[in-house]
């Protein structure tokens, strides 16, 4: 959350202020958009990325995460992250202003319930389980950084969602939330 406390995704709602990172890895505050995906009943295979600091990030193989020498210019899907690769961590509750690099030491598959993808109103990088994540590819994150603030400011985000994204079985944050992941 914005104050650094942990909150389960199942209690979050549109407009909640959370800690995020910008494209330079600087920690700031953004709000959750109605475009955030929440499918609490879905069952899926997840990857758990264990790191050199002893913290773990659990996410779907398709979820994106910043990797490499600098946060957050290069994004990979979790399935493409390798042992030894760098991902970025932010300690919950700490007065940290920048995400810190940590190496992936182990990758394991786990079955879990609940699919979620937090999308922020200004297209910043959500911090999930203490790690910087991304809700899409680098190109789409960049485009969203221009489009989402405009949609949010004009109050048309939900309209756009219904008009262009409402045809799938995807459920969104204002429908319901439930997960074993935590936002920081």
Notes on the protein architecture:
With 184 residues, the chain is mainly beta. The chain has one domain (7-163): Endonuclease - Pi-scei, Chain A, domain 1. It contains two helices and twelve strands; from the N terminus they run βββββββββββααβ. The chain has helices at 138-154, 157-165, and strands at residues 7-8, 17-21, 27-31, 37-51, 56-59, 64-67, 74-77, 86-89, 100-117, 125-128, 131-132, 182-183. The strands form four sheets. The protein has a four-stranded antiparallel β-sheet with strand order 3-2-10-11, with no helix packed on it. A four-stranded antiparallel β-sheet has the order 5-4-9-8, with no helix packed on it. The model is unreliable at 175-184 (pLDDT under 50).
- Helical proportion? 10-25%
Instruction: Give the helices and strands as they follow along the chain.
Output: EEEEEEEEEEEHHE
> What's the end-to-end separation, in Å?
5 Å
Mean pLDDT over all positions:
83
Radius of gyration: 15 Å
Biggest β-sheet: strands ordered side by side in the sheet: 3-2-10-11
**Number of DSSP helical runs:** 2
Structural class: mainly beta
**DSSP summary, beta strand count:** 12
CATH class, anyone? Mainly Beta
What's the assembly state of these chains?
Answer: single chain
CATH topology: Endonuclease - Pi-scei, Chain A, domain 1
